[in-house]
């Protein structure tokens, strides 16, 4: 439930190793489907390249269900796997990397390939602009108008926000609060309102960093 880093923008980074060109493309891909689409887009952009090796962590960095990689014709374990290791080591989520190789005529050997693909991506990641993905939970509540200042104060304190709000005989709405803060927020709301305002119906959702 903790926030994690994601790419803020796409990035292209290139270097030459023994006459071979290695071009790293990095994109923001929230799902495995987005990751595969990103790989396809780079293949279409660089059709003359001999290899389009890739890796993705298309979700939270700790979620092993959203990992993928490919050597795309390079010797097994020399490209996609070291690239995935770089992504996992960076602790960045929702990210896909494609390293394109234009062969320059000099073979690098298995160790050289591992260093080339992993190193190219490592240097590209060092240049990547990042932002934070915050994970929210939605809380529904009803309150009297006199209790609105308390709710607004706690929202500001916890950096939450209203998702929806309706004004009738009483106020009804849905709040978004960071999932890691939900228990503390609800406890303070209950305590400071002396039990009059209770948040309920927690539903996990996700959103980017809020202003």
UniProtKB/TrEMBL annotation:
Ranges where the Impact N-terminal domain occurs: 18-124
MF annotations from Gene Ontology: anion binding; guanyl ribonucleotide binding; ribonucleoside triphosphate phosphatase activity
Cleavable signal peptide: none
Any one GO BP annotation for this protein: regulation of translational initiation
Domain of life: Bacteria
One Pfam entry name: Impact_N
UniProt-listed SUPFAM superfamilies: EF-G C-terminal domain-like, Ribosomal protein S5 domain 2-like
Annotated ranges, domain UPF0029: 141-196
A cellular component term, taken from the record's GO annotations: cytoplasm
Family: Belongs to the IMPACT family.
Annotated protein name in UniProt: YigZ family protein
